[in-house]
Each structure stands twice: as structure tokens, then as C-alpha cells.
Amino acid sequence: MRRSTRFIVAGSAALLGITVLAGCSSSSSSDSSASAAASTTQMLPPVMVEQGATTAAAKVGDFVVINVKTIAGTTIATSTPDLLAISQGGTDGSADFNPGAQALAVGTGIITVTLPDGSTYDLTVTITE
């Protein structure tokens, strides 16, 4: 009986050691994989700017969305295309899209908004890292 008890204890210890090692090795690699996946898929919300606003702040990579009252007939332009990549607003039949721009580099960008009535205003976007 003593011999079988030693066998059971030795077998249990070996099984416990394998389980602990397997648990440690798989959790550390999956933790680093999960961290890497989370950091590469994180999406930031856009910088929302109301119609008529003349200043906004964004970071490189941010999207600045101008919440206009009337999308049809509103256009935007920029004198700083190296800092701001503009996107005109519009509709695709199922959704409306406000005009906006993506901040490309550090600096001060200007977006000129032209409303359907022909009036214009400038939106100065301060872009930081």
C-alpha cells in the first residue's frame, strides 16, 4: 500500500507541475497578444465641431467632423492640404455624412466652410501630436 501511495503522490505532483507550467506559458503569450491587438484596434471618437465654430483642437490622426445644419450644398476646402485631408459631406441614400477632415501633421490648419446660402467662415484647427 505504501508503494501505491508514493506512485499516486508522484503522479499528482508531476501533473500539477505540468498544469502550472502550461498555464504560465499560455497566459503570458496570450496576454501580450491581447495587449498588442487592443492597442492596434483602438478607435478614437471624432472631434465634433458645431456649424459656425471658428476654432477646434485635434491630434494627428483625429477626424474633425463639422456638424452642419444642411449637408446638401455645404462644401469645405482647405488652404493647408499638408495638414488636413478634407472629406465633403453627402448622402448615400441610407445615411447622411457631415463634411470633415483628418488631421495629418502638427500645425495650424484652416478649413473654409461654404454654406448653401453662399456664406463662408473659416475653422482654424490646431493639431498636436
Short synopsis of the structure:
Helices cover 31% and strands 36% of the residues. The chain is of the alpha+beta class and 129 residues long.
How would you describe the overall organization of this protein?
The protein has 129 residues and is α+β, with helices and mostly antiparallel strands. The chain has two domains: 1-42; 47-128, Immunoglobulin-like (Sandwich), CATH 2.60.40. The chain is 31% helix and 36% strand. It has one helix at 2-41; strands at residues 47-50, 55-59, 63-67, 75-78, 84-87, 90-91, 96-97, 100-103, 107-114, 120-128. The N and C termini lie far apart (72 Å).
Blueprint of the fold:
Layout: H1 2-41, E1 47-50, E2 55-59, E3 63-67, E4 75-78, E5 84-87, E6 90-91, E7 96-97, E8 100-103, E9 107-114, E10 120-128
Parallel strand pairs: 1-3, 2-10
Antiparallel strand pairs: 3-8, 4-9, 5-8, 6-7, 9-10
Features:
alpha+beta; 2 domains; 129 residues; Immunoglobulin-like; 4-stranded mixed beta sheet; disordered N terminus; 1 helix; globular; 10 strands
Mean pLDDT metric: 81
Count of extended strands: 10
Going across the biggest sheet, name each strand in turn: 1-3-8-5
Number of folding domains? 2
Helix content: 25-40%
In the CATH hierarchy, the architecture of the largest domain is Sandwich
Number of helices: 1
Largest sheet features = 4 strands, mixed
Q: How would you classify the helix and strand content by structural class?
A: alpha+beta
The coarse silhouette is globular
Strand fraction: 35-45%
Text of the CATH class of the largest domain: Mainly Beta
CA-based gyration radius: 28 Å
Distance N to C terminus: 72 Å
- CATH third-tier fold name of the largest domain: Immunoglobulin-like
* Topology as a string of helices (H) and strands (E): HEEEEEEEEEE
Q: Runs with pLDDT <50, length 5+? A: 3-30
